[in-house]
Design brief:
200 residues; Aminopeptidase; alpha+beta; 30% strand; 32% helix; 6 helices; 8 strands
């Protein structure tokens, strides 16, 4: 197969997946007028680095340690333009102050999305994760998803509470499914929300 043929095959494969949802060609901006989820910019790099120094963030994510300014710049540069198979957004308030990160990913199966987020330590306790999750759920329905997933470490009581508040059903536990810091393995709690679920 020629190089051009290989590229054409990849593009057609992506289009086949996209036909099941109206996946965006550009990173969207979403808001509920309290918080806004917007594309990352170079100016977010210092806040991304600062948030990543938090021990709780390090425990429940795959953020490398130490997390340097160069790491933050590389992350922002790469994620500020990537749309497929998922995109990342900065969570900000009405003054554009950085509150955290979130993302939406298209799963391999038809019309399924998955949500992820990490709220900065200085923004916790204000319902930011819940607002973020609800915005991403609503956007998932708008683009044609029929199911949204949210996974959380079993020890992450805060994220499991967010899932319940947003109507997710706890569907099971995958034992030792995620490797965390220092080689420690964590159980993952699987949550799912269908467009047909009450309150979805």
């Amino acid at each position: 197969m020629s190089f051009s043929g290989s590229v054409r095959t990849l593009i057609e494969g992506a289009r086949t997946k996209l036909e099941h949802m109206d996946w965006p060609r550009h990173i969207p901006t979403l808001t509920d007028r309290v918080i806004t989820l917007r594309p990352l910019t170079s100016g977010d790099a210092p806040s991304v680095q600062a948030a990543s120094q938090d021990p709780l963030t390090a425990e429940f994510t795959v953020v490398p340690s130490p997390y340097t300014a160069a790491d933050a710049r590389d992350f922002v540069d790469s994620r500020s333009v990537r749309v497929w198979p998922g995109f990342d957004l900065a969570i900000v308030d009405d003054t554009n102050s950085f509150l955290g990160l979130c993302g939406l990913r298209a799963e391999d199966d038809d019309a399924i999305t998955a949500i992820g987020y990490a709220v900065a330590p200085w923004a916790r306790g204000r319902g930011i994760a819940t607002r973020t999750t609800r915005l991403l759920i609503e956007y998932s329905w708008q683009i044609g998803a029929v199911r949204v997933g949210l996974d959380a470490y079993a020890e992450n009581a805060a994220s499991r509470a967010v899932a319940r508040k947003c109507g997710f059903i706890e569907e099971g536990i995958l034992r030792s499914a995620a490797q965390g810091k220092n080689g420690r393995r964590h159980d993952l709690v699987m949550h799912g929300l269908l467009r047909t679920d009450p309150g979805a």
